[in-house]
Amino acid sequence: MNTRVRYEVAGGVADVRLSRPEKLNAFDPAMMEGLVETIEMLGRRNDVRCVVLSGDGRAFCAGVDLDGLGKREPGSLLPRWAGPANKAQQAAYGWRTLPQPVIAAVHGYAFGAGFQIMLGADMRIAAPDTQLSIMEARWGLVPDVAGIALLRSLVRDDVVRELTYTARRFDASEGLRLGVITRVAEDPHAEAMAVARTIAANSPDAMRAAKRLLNLMADAQTAEILLAESVEQTRLIASANHRETVAAANERRAPIFPDPA
Asked: CA 57, CA 258: separation in Å to the nearest integer?
């Protein structure tokens, strides 16, 4: 596996770590490759029911590696890598499209590309002193790691503009008020793992179906969403995991769910 990103799976939860602590997990081509590869591998693993994404060391991700600024060929950003995303965008947007729910545990810094990678998760739990920023304007750039696409369902239009235009820093409590942080916790990784274990105890079929439906909220018209609700529920009603949920409730025991096919 790429050394920039590592993960282990236990109890249906994948614990994924950005692992470049000496550089505050700065985003460089190797980190991008590691994230994309990890997303692809997790997407193929039916034994993974929830993912926790965090950073080793003192920060989640302090943004783009400054040594790489100004070295990218402009045309390299235009080819698409996965669906609508280029490869750098997939490092963030891929968490959104991963079948399993994803929780980002954020501490230290989440700047620029790191901020956008965090946004790809289904929810974000941050330490109180975490510093956040859409920092690209400081370098004469715009957020281009899927941040705009991910922010549109989280934050008011005028707030996104203010944060983008000013590139100012703000803390986790303000992030919670604005909508980019889901919950503030003293130990965000422990909190994220606890939530992940709760999710992993639910029917994996239902969790994957719920994520597909929730992703449609920002991207689809009402008629498509309503039909998708009916299609997903029809499949779940006929599923063995739904029958197991009902049986376990009637028998007052914990359900036992096989991994998705």
From this structure: 35
What domains, with CATH codes, occur in the chain? 5-200 (3.90.226.10), 204-251 (1.10.12)
Q: What is the mean pLDDT of residues 64-90?
A: 84
- The pairing of beta strand 50-55 with beta strand 13-18: parallel
Which residues are within 8 A (CB) of 152 and not within 5 positions of it... i.e. 6 or more apart? 160, 218
Under 8 Å CB-to-CB from 7, ≥6 apart: which residues? Answer: 1, 14, 15, 16, 17, 38, 42
In whole angstroms, give the CA distance from residue 113 to residue 92.
8
Please check the confidence at residue 225 and state whether its pLDDT lies above 70.
Answer: yes
User: Does the pLDDT of residue 161 top 80, yes or no?
Assistant: yes
Q: What is the mean pLDDT of the chain?
A: 95
- For 223, the token pair is 């008629």
Angle 194-200-202 from CA coordinates, rounded to 5°: 120
Q: What are the helix (H) ranges across the chain?
A: 29-43, 87-97, 113-119, 147-151, 157-166, 172-178, 188-200, 204-219, 222-237, 240-251
Cα–Cα dist 60/255, whole Å = 35
261: helix, strand or coil = coil
Give the Cα separation of 218 and 244 in Å (integer).
32
The secondary structure of residue 143, as a DSSP letter, is -
Neighbours of 162 (CB within 10 A): 14
Closest C-alpha to 171, from 180, 161, 162: 180
Confidence of residue 68 (pLDDT cuts 50, 70, 90): confident
